[in-house]
Design brief:
Elements lengths: L2 H14 L17 H7 L4 H10 L4 H4 L5 E6 L16 H15 L2 E6 L5 H10 L6 E4 L6 H12 L4 E3 H21 L8 E4 L3 H12 L7 E5 L2 E2 L10 H4 L10 H4 L5 E4 L8 H5 L6 E4 L9 H7 L4 E4 L14 H10 L7 H16 L4 H6 L20 H16 L10 H12 L3 H11 L5 E4 L5 H13 L3 E5 L2 H10 L11 E3 L7 H12 L6 H10 L1 H10 L5 E4 L5 H12 L8 E8 L2 E6 L9 H16 L6 E5 L10 H14 L6 E6 L1 H5 L1 H7 L11 E4 L2 H13 L4 E8 L5 E3 L6 H11 L8
Parallel strand pairs: 1-2, 1-3, 3-4, 5-6, 5-8, 8-9, 9-10, 11-12, 11-14, 12-13, 14-21, 16-19, 17-18, 17-19
Antiparallel strand pairs: 6-7, 15-16, 15-20
């Protein structure tokens, strides 16, 4: 099977299996009994209807309309396929709806209409206003798309956005902004030559004028050559607005001295000899899909310093509308905008362009592993899977909507709004906020044992940019510097953070001497101490904390948990500090769930279980959560007499012997802990209502199994594990941790002990 045939089969299978299409509808409210039915439909639904009839603005409170977009097409200009009709366009529109949901959590219906008359098509779209919070027009041929959009924008009081025009123009605007910065040029001085007078091409030129390009410096060509005054063949009012001169000319004649070529036409339109006529450091945006106006390698042969962008994903700088449309709609919907105006589009451009100039996120780096994601000629715009797009772009759009007066539901605090958006993308953001706020009250030195790991480097970069804590990395300075540069990070060893080199460090003698002093009566000779402090970075980090050269250690990005714990306990453990247990926070769709002890004590005694319960209560409160702790066992309220049940009951007796300021109950199964109805049937009068938010198990096998099941099958995001009992002096992560997970752990380690007891 050829590669093309294989790709075709995979694409068709993707659309057909396991069920046809890419969309389904799911209810957001329970429908399990007659009570639910009476609320969802008759008679309860009448209450919501009555409220909306009295005040139409509350429709966004009682229905999905405020988060619902219609993607509308008549199939007259679908991708590079042309006028294939409404029905054949449906896979594309379904795909657009999926992108809305994936990237901005916006619900979407795709609507394909058999209507070729632009005015009638506009009438149909306008009639749908009660159903939707916004309209995304898609794949409607020019000039019909201009007519449809103009009518809809004039008659409708919700945002109407033709993505083929404005989405493309926004991403081109962001890419051009950064390309000019790289080339050392400005919008007001450049000559622009464009091919293609369709919807996207005209919209891009209009946007470039708004960004500062002078109208007299724009030359538009199409299949008939230069658009000039008096030309009659294949002209539209939109093209005529860019007429240049009064006589015919070919692209080859007008390209000379051009700073920017903007192609939205067809394959092979721009020849290498034309590129050679362009200005120094030419900018070539060849955006025809799937084959651009000129291939990047052809450009490089005649202009090695050219800055290139295409519409393809297999070359740098893909101009992809997904960088824009989900987030401009997100911001517009959230403030109840009545339209998407120029100010909002410019705000979107500024947000996208600025994000590309910032340090690349760890999540984007993971999604595009192996690609160089450092701002420059090959990285002008961010990648679609950069999760920061939501917060940066949508909040910029919302602000522009409010500033320009089109927002009907203004947001009081944009900072809180951005944090909420980030929280919807970074699942740990909201639950971690109290921890980061507490950590910001002090400047603590956090030493990372595995400082050469790229995840550690990204976490350290984020710490320098976003927190008051100071990272210290253990590793070889040249390796750290090389890997930071390769990852596109702005941090520099020695300038932004301290490096401890195991191979050569002035403190080596003091470190091995301190370790030998601690371990001399435990079989460690001076030679062994020297060897360990040359090779064991966890021991080095622990000694640094012991000597006051660092405040907390983070280790464990590789290796076995108990191996790291052994050295931490040797060096930092004492009569006051000892490992109590490991607490893992699992962030689930319906909220946080804490699990302990996942690593430390394989079969904890009753005393150790009780100690874990008390420590967990303290740490859970660090997240702004009031603990409801269930002691879990295979025994349920005394119905089994085995070992784990006995130890769990013993822990309850210890806890009951002293007044506690937190809620706990046990011993019980996990279902009784999480389902209050089950618990009330089995044990009426339990000590707390509602589901438990902390599960403490009688052995690590059970705790670890639940943790991993929730992570793999339940889509849970883990924060931790948090090593309890060591006074926040050390934490051991697991090898699967991400860069953001390490940043979260640095905040936990960076919180002064006084904040949690």
């Amino acid at each position: 099977m050829s590669e093309d045939s294989y790709l075709r089969k995979r694409a068709l299978d993707y659309h057909e299996f396991p069920q046809p299409g890419k969309l389904e509808i799911r209810a957001t409210k329970p429908m399990a009994n007659g009570r639910d039915l009476s609320l969802a439909y008759s008679p309860g639904v009448a209450e919501a209807c009555t409220e909306i009839s009295k005040d139409p603005s509350v429709a966004s409170r009682y229905t999905a309309r405020g988060n619902l977009v219609a993607v509308v097409s008549n199939g007259s200009a679908v991708l590079g396929l042309g006028n294939i009709g409404a029905l054949a366009s449906k896979p594309v529109m379904e795909g657009k709806a999926v992108l809305f949901k994936k990237f901005a959590n916006i619900d979407c219906f795709d609507i394909e209409l058999n209507e070729s008359d632009p005015e009638k098509l506009a009438d149909i779209v306008c009639a749908m206003e009660p159903s939707f919070g916004a309209i995304n027009l898609e794949d409607i041929k020019a000039p019909d798309c201009f007519i449809v959009e103009q009518i809809c924008r004039e008659r409708m009081n919700i945002p109407v956005f033709h993505d083929d025009q404005h989405g493309t123009a926004i991403v081109v605007g962001a890419a051009a902004t950064n390309a000019l910065q790289v080339a050392g040029k400005s919008f007001g001085d450049i000559k622009v030559v464009s091919t293609g007078g369709g919807a996207a091409g005209i919209a891009c030129l209009n946007m470039l004028l708004k960004l500062g390009v002078k109208r007299e410096n724009v030359w538009l060509c199409d299949i008939e050559g230069l658009v000039y005054e008096g030309r009659e063949k294949d002209m539209t009012p939109q093209k005529a607005a860019y007429a240049q001169g009064q006589s015919p000319a070919a692209l080859d004649e007008v390209i000379e001295g051009a700073d920017l070529f903007l192609g939205l036409s067809g394959p092979g339109v721009l020849k290498p000899e034309m590129v050679a006529k362009m200005a120094d450091r030419p900018i070539v945006f060849a955006l025809a899909n799937p084959t651009p106006e000129i291939m990047p390698d052809e450009v490089r042969k005649v202009a090695p310093d050219a800055i290139m962008a295409t519409g393809r994903s297999d070359f740098p700088n893909q101009v992809n509308n997904v960088l824009c449309f989900p987030f401009i709609f997100r911001g517009a919907l959230d403030v109840g905008a009545t339209e998407i105006n120029d100010a909002m589009q410019l705000g979107c451009i500024e947000g996208i362009a600025a994000l590309a100039r910032a340090t690349t996120s760890a999540e984007a780096a993971a999604a595009y592993k192996g690609e160089q994601l450092t701002f420059g000629e090959d990285y002008l715009i961010p990648k679609p899977f950069d999760p920061r797009l939501m917060g940066v772009v949508a909040s910029a759009v919302a602000k522009a909507a409010m500033d320009s007066g089109v927002a009907t539901r203004p947001i009081e605090c944009l900072e809180a709004y951005k944090a909420k958006l980030d929280g919807s993308v970074f699942k740990s953001a909201l639950i971690m906020r109290p921890v980061f706020e507490a950590a910001a009250t002090a400047e603590r030195r956090i030493v990372f044992a595995e400082g050469e790991d790229e995840r550690v480097l990204r976490a350290a970069n984020a710490m320098v940019e976003e927190t008051t804590d100071a990272p210290i990395l253990i590793g070889r300075p040249d390796v750290i510097a090389l890997r930071a540069e390769r990852a596109g990070l702005s941090i520099v060893p020695g300038r932004d953070f301290e490096v401890v080199n195991p191979e050569r460090d002035d403190r080596y003698r003091a470190y091995w001497g301190a370790y030998h002093e601690i371990m001399a009566r435990k079989g460690v000779t001076p030679d062994l101490a020297k060897a360990i402090l040359r090779t064991n970075t966890t021991a080095i980090g622990s000694i640094m904390v012991h000597l006051g050269h660092a405040d907390s250690l983070i280790a464990g990005t590789f290796g076995q948990y108990l191996w790291h714990l052994n050295y931490i306990q040797q060096i930092l453990g004492n009569h006051e500090l000892h490992p109590v247990g490991a607490l893992s926070l699992m962030i689930l769709q319906d909220g946080p769930l804490f699990i302990a002890d996942t690593h430390v004590h394989n079969t904890p005694s009753a005393e150790q279980i009780a100690e874990t319960v008390c420590a967990a209560a303290r740490h859970v409160r660090r997240f702004g959560v009031e603990p409801k702790i269930a002691v879990c066992s295979y025994s349920q309220f005394g119905n089994h007499g085995g070992d784990s049940g006995a130890r769990a009951r013993g822990a309850l007796e210890i806890l009951d012997a002293t007044p506690r300021d937190f809620a706990y109950e046990g011993e019980m199964h996990v279902d009784a802990a999480l389902d209050p109805e089950v618990r009330s049937r089995l044990f009426p009068g339990a000590r707390f209502d509602g589901p438990a938010n902390v599960l403490v198990f009688a052995n690590t096998d059970a705790a670890s199994a639940v943790r991993n099941t929730l992570k793999v099958k339940g889509g849970g995001l883990e924060v931790g594990p948090i090593l309890m009992g060591m006074g926040n002096r050390a934490h051991i992560v697991t090898p699967s941790i991400t860069a953001r997970g390490l940043l979260n752990m640095s905040a936990i380690a960076g919180t002064p002990v006084a904040h949690y007891g």
